[in-house]
Design a protein that fits this description.
By secondary structure, the protein is mostly helical. It is 78% helix and 2% strand. A hairpin with a 2-residue loop joins strand 1 (26-27) and strand 2 (30-31). InterPro entries: Tetraspanin/Peripherin, Tetraspanin_animals, Tetraspanin_CS, Tetraspanin_EC2_sf.
Amino acid sequence: LAGGIILGVALWLRHDSQTTNILYLQLGDKQAPNTFYVGIYILIAVGAVMMFVGFLGCYGAIQESQCLLGTFFTCLVILFACEVAAGIWGFVNKDQIAKDVKQFYDQAFQQALMAESDMNNGKAVVKTFHETLDCCGPDNAVGVITPLWRDDLCPKKEFSLKNVIESSNCHKKIDELFSGKLYLIGIAAIVVAVIMIFEMILSMVLCCGIRNSSIY
């Protein structure tokens, strides 16, 4: 059940409309940075393997098989090690993921403002960012005034100083998007790790109990 829940959460994160709209973009021959998906793919793999290993553990417990329970324990140890490695990787790269996406957005934004922007897809990429995240412009002075003179790039809103200020920072929206998703991945990983620790303890207790009962 835990494996199924983790798999479901990972698939939901993988197919979330906001992240897929942004991370599938292509600027000329450059693909949007999709390092974010590495952590999700690891969660998908862990969830799927956990479901299989869970059946293995249940069958081993029913049959009172030391061999199956030992295999179950070994698989859990391997999964736990993979998850710890993925957690360390995610912690190290959590700021870098948003930074790479912001750099990709800035490149597209610069191309969209250039006179020859119609010769590439920079304008389309920028509009996708703006419509998906409901923002307009990077985190600088150019970004603040962009809604005033480039309404073709920005979401159509009722004009007011408040709307201009609130919708003018795509860097902030990118940070919020990926920090929120990484936060969910972190919670899922912690929950799985705790469950795995209990599973390993209980499987060893059960295996030892079966071994001791077989002596008598």
